[in-house]
Fold each of these.
Amino acid sequence: MEKLKILLPKGRIYENVTKLFSDAGIDIYLPERAYRPTVNQDDLEAKVMKPQNIGKLLELGAHDVGFTGIDWIRETSADVVEIMDLGFDKVRIVAAVPNDLDDAALRSKRVIVATEYVNNAEAWLKTQNMKYLTVRTYGATEVFPPDDADMIIDNTATGRTLIENGLRIVDTIMESSTRMFASKEAMADPAKSKKIQELKMLFESVLAAKNRVMLEMNVSKARFSDLVSGIPAMKSPTVAPLYGDDGYAIKIVVKKSEAPTLLPKLKSLGATDILEYELRKVMP
């Protein structure tokens, strides 16, 4: 089979994406200052590129799968297929201005807008009926006001950097997260499409496991009915008789957030020898 060519995002989101691969059993090693990692799967080939470029490179068909934010897909109008939202690196694309610049002043002048998102910015600015001039930045957009720009349009996770630079948010333009995309050519190839769907299944199982734990416990025959009727499970609990016909061993998978309140409840329902396990993959 021809190798599936994967584009990995350079920068801050690289670690989250490669950690997902690692948790799925696919190890990626990138030597320092290199752009072509080694992958422990013979049918995968990877290259590291800036997130801004990944969508268009997929559209051109030289690569099959890529990971980047939906903000850059929309910014570049890349014609690609979204496979899944990984939920990583959630940010908002916002318009922000200096604290002492009021809304009336914004609409009484030509506004200089500094941004990496020129296309997204101009689409939003047109809806605001503002006179504006956009200046493309290449990082550190928040330092432009007030000397070199009246407004910035930039991504933020918490808003802390904006506050520290004396800026206030006037509008949220869009929300973004890291997602998995594929080229249309790859999805039209049965073998590549199958491999892409297999990767998606692995990633979904890893992400599902992050939010769940397995609980294993014993219960006597006398308390069995009370216990199984009072516990949640993905479907039905796994039940096996104990040695010597002395009761039952029960396994359930539950949300990690449920465990703190569930454990005392299990104890009150007659569970003994309760164990909690971390999970690596969950395939419902």
Amino acid sequence: MGDEINENCSTCETETSGTRTAHHDEKIIKELINRLNRIEGQVRGVKGMIERHVYCDDVLNQITSAQSALDGVSKLLLEKHFKSCVKDRLSQGDDEVIDELLKTIFRMKR
């Protein structure tokens, strides 16, 4: 992800293929990747606990911890999405982003 974004490019830009991309700064990307790497380790740990026949309650506590960590990643990404992608699309008159965002939030709340 380069720093060169042309002046007509929105934060969540639609490429010619129709796929949108996010343009978050490298600090945020690094933070998200670090969190996801830790979560990946937690999930591998849960798998190992099950393979070792660790007491169910202990495994469930580790699963809850991994889910909480994923929720943290979701909240951070949602915050950045609001402050960049959604803000840019609204400023360009794209009100469809509101329905898209509501669907995403409702899905997250299930």
